[in-house]
Design a protein that fits this description.
Blueprint (H helix, E strand, L loop, with lengths): L3 E3 L2 E3 L6 E6 L4 E7 L3 H17 L6 H17 L1 H12 L3 H21 L7 E2 L5 E9 L2 E5 L5 H14 L3 E5 L6 H13 L6 E3 L4 H10 L5 E5 L2 H13 L4 E4 L4 E5 L5 H13 L9 E7 L3 H14 L1 E2 L14 H16 L3 E5 L1 E2 L13 E4 L6 H4 L6 E7 L2 H9 L6 E5 L3 H10 L4 E4 L19 E2 L6 H5 L1 E9 L2
Parallel strand pairs: 7-8, 7-10, 8-9, 10-11, 12-13, 12-19, 13-18, 14-16, 17-18, 19-20
Antiparallel strand pairs: 1-2, 3-4, 5-6, 6-22, 11-21, 15-17
Helix pairs in contact: 1-7, 2-4, 2-6, 3-4, 3-6, 4-5, 9-10
The structure holds nicotinamide-adenine-dinucleotide.
The site of nicotinamide-adenine-dinucleotide has 27 residues, from helix 7 and helix 8.
């Protein structure tokens, strides 16, 4: 059984209780993790504070960068091991698991290079004064991480926080935390001081709740569902703790009649089947100009029928969903859609080798879905693409903006002026034109508006969120 990593040491949960780790590919328990509680969180926060005050805040920025670079190299060296941990924990097909490890190594590399480039400004003021600003770390940052991309979200969230000079306490998801325990160990081996990176395992309502309420946490980075994000923000507000919320999405892919469909359609398929649709930025709504709607439905239908879901190790188009309850949620949303007469254009297959005890869901393409319906408004977090048509640019923008979310959008058109016009009018945090996701885009700030959250991670911009600005006005003499 594995558990916390605090002060560079593996330690058991003080409760003595455990949570089984389930392999989504066969639904069987293969390990267990400690069920952390407020006492364990307290130990982790104390370790992080000690490290912050005695070592981490005194280390030159360039040295922090070197440590992050060494961790990046260690992650690359242990890529196969980390990918296989992630594969069993999350049910990721091999290529996806390897891509996640590569992304983590790249985040750490990016943030390694940023440590000694984060600086303040001098501000012109009255004669006889010098005014400057200092970018200072918050101190101890708390990171609540979901199960869909543990390694990648560690990279963008913890990587940025460490680069900015914070020490960190991480609460990974109860469904998938083994890879992060291993990364914390690799960091210790790479020379990170005790207390810089601490991991507390356990349930969200216990360890997670204790972390976000802890008075010793100076900033919270939460990635997860809007419902829990609201709770986290409320409890943080009670003690005026800053929060970054990376929540869900219902991101539109907008296809105009002049789009290059040979480029657009494979990207549209991949944006909904990647990680079995369990991606906050999944392109889960397809808006197609009416004159090419039938063509797009036909071609996408052909592509969907060929898609295969199966055990992660088979490395098919899709692995299983994370857990039984997630599978049941997707199935019930689809049953509701069918009952209301929504037409299924095409469905992929679940391969024969997939055990019935695994959490599989074939990808589904639905058409003429009403923009106000549940499937068009709510995040499914499964491989379900809902399509609808639009008649002109204004209509496309209206539909694209008509959900509570605003995370990402894709625009497919050859018309340069329209690319800018539509991108400007979309209410979301990221827009991709004639591509979707830009291959990960570690350098590109990421985050949402509306119910998708606030604050930005990824890129240099994240470092502003992981620091606080102090202004210093000095009167000469
Ligand atoms: P979730 O909100 O249930 O859990 C996320 C994390 O929060 C887990 O670590 C969980 O243990 C913890 N948690 C649960 N209750 C808590 C509480 N009361 N206090 C503190 N922490 C608590 O979400 P999930 O089902 O694990 O993940 C799926 C959701 O995450 C989807 O909505 C998805 O869109 C979103 N997500 C968003 C992004 C993004 O960057 N915007 C990235 C990945 C996932």
């Amino acid at each position: 059984m594995q558990s916390h990593f605090i002060d560079n040491t593996h330690c058991a949960a003080s409760s003595g209780l455990s949570i089984p780790m389930i392999d989504p590919s066969d639904g069987q328990a293969f390990d267990a993790i400690g069920r952390g509680n407020a006492n364990d969180v307290n130990d982790a926060v104390s370790a992080a504070r000690r490290c912050q005050e005695t070592v981490w805040s005194k280390l030159p920025a360039a040295n922090r960068g070197r440590l992050l670079m060494q961790l990046s190299a260690a992650v690359a060296t242990h890529a196969d091991e980390l990918a296989s941990i992630e594969q069993r924990d999350c049910g990721k097909p091999t290529r996806q698991a390897i891509a996640d490890v590569s992304a983590l190594a790249r985040y750490l590399e990016f943030y390694a290079g940023s440590c000694d480039k984060l600086h303040g400004a001098t501000i012109p003021y009255l004669d006889g004064y010098s005014v400057l600003t200092w970018r200072e770390p918050h101190g101890v940052t708390g990171h609540v991480i979901p199960w869909n991309y543990p390694l990648q979200i560690f990279g963008r969230s913890v990587g940025g926080a460490l680069a900015a000079g914070n020490s960190c306490v991480i609460k990974p998801a109860e469904d998938a935390c083994l890879s992060l325990i291993r990364v914390a160990q690799l960091a210790a081996d790479a020379g990170f001081p005790a207390g810089a990176i601490n991991v507390v395992t356990g349930y969200g309502h216990e360890a997670g709740d204790a972390l976000v309420r802890h008075a010793g946490i100076d900033h919270i980075s939460f990635t997860g569902s809007p419902v829990i994000g609201t709770r986290v923000a409320q409890s943080a507000a009670e003690r005026h703790c800053p929060v970054t919320l990376e929540l869900g999405g219902k991101s539109p892919q907008i296809v105009f009649a002049d789009a290059n469909l040979d480029a657009a359609l494979p990207a549209i398929v991949s944006a909904i089947v990647q990680n079995s649709g369990q991606t906050c930025s999944a392109g889960s709504r397809l808006l197609v100009e009416h004159s090419i709607y039938e063509t797009v439905m036909t071609r996408l239908g052909q592509a969907f029928r060929k898609l295969q879901a199966g055990p992660a190790a088979l490395d098919l188009d899709l692995g299983p969903l994370i857990r039984r309850t997630q599978q049941q949620r997707v199935q019930s949303m689809l049953a509701e859609a069918r009952a209301t007469g929504i037409e299924v254009v095409a469905e992929g297959q679940i391969v024969d080798q997939a055990p019935s005890s695994g959490f599989y869901q074939a990808p589904v393409l639905l058409r003429d879905v009403a923009p106000v319906s549940r499937l068009a408004q709510e995040e499914v977090f499964g491989p379900v693409l809902v399509a609808m048509s639009f008649h002109d640019e204004d209509h496309a923008v209206e539909l694209a903006n008509a959900t509570p979310f605003g995370l990402v959008a894709g625009i497919w058109t050859q018309d340069g002026a329209r690319q800018f016009r539509v991108a400007r009018r979309l209410r979301c945090g990221q827009v991709f034109v004639n591509n979707y996701g830009a291959g990960g885009g570690v350098e590109i700030p990421f985050g949402g508006v509306k119910s998708s959250g606030y604050g930005r991670e990824k890129g240099f911009e994240a470092l502003y969120g992981f620091t606080t600005l102090k202004s210093v006005a000095i009167r000469h003499g």
